[in-house]
Design a protein that fits this description.
The complex is a heterodimer of chains A (173) and B (392). Chain A is an alpha/beta fold and 173 residues long. Chain A has one domain: Pyruvate-ferredoxin oxidoreductase, PFOR, domain III (Pyruvate-ferredoxin Oxidoreductase, domain 3), CATH 3.40.920. Chain A has 5 helices and 6 strands; from the N terminus they run βαβββββαααα. With 392 residues, chain B is of the alpha/beta class. Chain B folds into 2 domains: 244 residues, Rossmann fold (3-Layer(aba) Sandwich); 128 residues, Rossmann fold (3-Layer(aba) Sandwich). Chain B has 14 helices and 15 strands. A 7-stranded mixed sheet of chain B has the order 3-2-4-5-7-6-12, sandwiched between helices. Chain B has a 6-stranded mixed sheet with strand order 9-11-10-13-14-15, with helices on both faces. A two-stranded antiparallel ribbon of chain B has the order 1-8. In chain B, α11 links the parallel β10 and β11. In chain B, α1 packs across α2, α3 packs across α4 and α12 packs across α13. The longest helix of chain B has 16 residues. Classes of the chains: A alpha/beta (173), B alpha/beta (392). Chains A and B meet through α1 and β2 of A and β8 and α11 of B.
Chain lengths: 173, 392
């Protein structure tokens, strides 16, 4: 099973990203997915987490993910050394930041610049999904594009797909 | 059928839409869940032809559903937690009136302390209200149960309201891949509602009347027989369901590797998935573990439980519920089933997951470890520290 934790602040779309990844993976035959937010009340701006579990057999464990293959931060103010405690051996952090981080476990991408160019808003959830597709190979760019079409309102399709493609190319370099 | 990626709430809403209810009454504010919001969207976009009535409380939501049901309309409502408790006065009313209303309840904790996370104390506190109570494990079962619940509630020999329970958050808010049947299949499965006690201008009736001491017992007895008949109605509904949709279910309980099991954990709802994984792990180590999932608490599956556990050396009940001053209510009911069947098997009770507390695979494994001493105990999971949670 592959397990992904999404970190963001309320309003940044972490749960939407968790669902988008799940939807993309579920387009394949014989796949099983759970995607869920951290349980409880929701508040704008407060740190939240969301979770995606991907497998080729039914998933019985509905608990929050303790150790992830990828831990993704939409907001670099939420990132600290503690992030490494929730990684499986060989797991990676995917961090949206303009800074560079000197740690082989951390992959950085300047998602805000891509968001500014394609979306005109500092929302990076779909962008980090595109970056994840490039660095992990868990899903293809086509699957992610199809998931956007199936889950998001039509007026958001074109610019999000363009942003995802840009992030995919940037992260794949 | 179409594959969709849906939350438990949404899956249930799709199932309700397929059942073509004519009236949906709901109070939309906390602790209500997305299920009625989704249904209101279906009504708005015209994909569901129903009267959607926003009422001012959960008490009114069920009262409204009773009114609709009395004139022969298929009625649906939904609630959760404190909302269910506020509705509580109306629950025996609907059951005594034999109104085959379907309600989805998102299982969430009750105050105080204030907590909107999942546990099953809300619905279990209402076991004596006269409603059928079923518990789904995953989103597919939630959708299928939505459709079947109308068939069972409206069955001529049942005519009893149906409470379909989905674990709060871990099922209601979690997205999964779900097969959504076609409307044609659903129509083949579920005929339109025909009731004997329909009130109309052409056929005026006296409903919701008084019955004094002379006749009251016979009404209550008939109510009891009606809910006992659910057992046969479930079997009938599931046979019919499998024929049309190709998915099968196993009645009031689901046994997993219980046939030769020495130690069996009995539980209900979404935690069953994790228990199944632990059973598989223990089986790989050569340990004879099993799971018995209670799909229904009312009617209570006395015979099914006795049959499943009769060869076990010890059993335990894991439940997200406590009847303060006694023990978990499911455990009390299970012990009664054992006693009636003449079985003297050590039975323990593990109370966990209260107020949304996570139950881990390691904790479930340790329950199976503790069962090997073949004693009876009542314990709380997740207290930690020096207070082990042991009650006796």
């Amino acid at each position: 099973m592959k397990e992904i934790i999404w970190h963001g602040r309320g309003g940044q779309g972490a749960f939407t990203a968790a669902r988008l990844l799940g939807e993309a993976y579920s387009l394949r035959e014989n796949t099983f997915v759970l995607a869920f937010p951290s349980f409880g009340p929701e508040r704008r701006g407060a740190p939240i987490r969301a979770f995606t579990k991907l497998d080729t057999k039914p998933i019985g464990n509905r608990s929050e993910i303790a150790k992830a293959d990828y831990s993704i931060f939409l907001d670099d103010t939420l990132f600290s050394e503690q992030a490494f405690d929730e990684l499986k051996p060989g797991g990676r952090v995917l961090l949206n930041t303009k800074k560079s981080v000197d740690d082989e476990r951390v992959i950085t991408i300047d998602g805000d610049s891509i968001a500014g160019k394609y979306l005109g808003l500092p929302i990076t959830n779909t962008i980090l999904s595109g970056a994840l597709a490039a660095v992990s190979g868990l899903i293809t760019l086509d699957e992610l594009t199809e998931a956007v079409k199936q889950t998001m309102p039509e007026r958001l399709h074109e610019k999000n797909i363009a942003a995802i493609r840009a992030a995919y190319e940037e992260a794949g370099k | 059928m179409a594959k969709k990626f849906l939350s438990g709430n949404e899956a249930f809403a799709y199932g309700v839409r397929l059942a073509r209810p004519q009236v949906i009454s709901a109070y939309p504010i906390t602790p209500q869940t997305i299920v009625v919001e989704k249904l209101s969207e279906f009504v708005e976009d015209g994909s569901l032809k129903a009267e959607f009535i926003h009422v001012e409380s959960e008490h009114s939501a069920l009262s409204c559903a009773m009114g609709a049901s009395s004139v022969g309309a298929r009625a649906f409502t939904a609630t959760s937690s404190q909302g269910l408790l506020y509705m509580a006065e109306c629950l025996p009313y609907a059951a005594g009136g034999r109104f085959p209303i379907v309600m989805m309840n998102a299982n969430r904790s009750t105050a105080l302390p204030w907590n909107i996370y999942g546990d099953q104390r809300d619905s279990i506190s209402q076991l004596d209200s006269g409603w059928i109570q079923a518990y789904a494990e995953n989103a597919q079962e939630a959708l299928d149960l939505a459709l079947m619940s109308f068939y069972i509630a409206e069955h001529k020999k049942v005519s009893t309201p149906f409470m379909a329970n989905l674990d709060g958050f871990v099922l209601t808010h979690t997205y999964e891949v779900v097969d959504v049947p076609t409307q044609e299949q659903a129509d083949e499965f579920l005929p339109s509602l025909q009731t004997d006690n329909k009130m109309s201008l052409e056929s005026p009736k006296n409903l919701a009347f008084s019955a004094g001491p002379d006749t009251n017992t016979i009404f209550k007895y008939k109510e009891h027989i009606g809910i006992l008949n659910v057992s046969d109605a479930v079997a009938e509904a599931e046979r019919r369901f499998e024929k049309i949709f190709g998915r099968s279910y196993t009645g009031l309980t689901e046994s997993y590797k219980t046939e030769d099991a020495d130690y069996i954990l009995i539980t209900l709802g979404s935690i069953s998935g994790l228990v199944r994984e632990v059973v598989d792990k223990l089986r790989e180590q050569g340990r004879k573990a099993g799971l018995l999932r209670l799909r229904y608490l009312r009617p209570f599956p006395n015979k099914e439980i006795a049959e499943a556990v009769k060869r076990a050396k010890a059993i335990a009940v894991l439940e997200k519920d406590i009847s303060f001053g006694n023990e978990g209510t499911v455990y009390t009911n299970v012990n009664s089933a054992l006693q009636k069947a003449g079985l003297s098997i050590p039975a323990s009770n593990y109370i966990g997951g209260l107020g949304g507390k996570n139950i881990s695979g390691e904790e479930i494994e340790s329950i199976f470890d503790e069962l090997t001493d073949e004693r009876s105990r009542v314990e709380f999971l997740g207290i930690g520290g020096e207070d082990s949670g042991s009650q006796r």
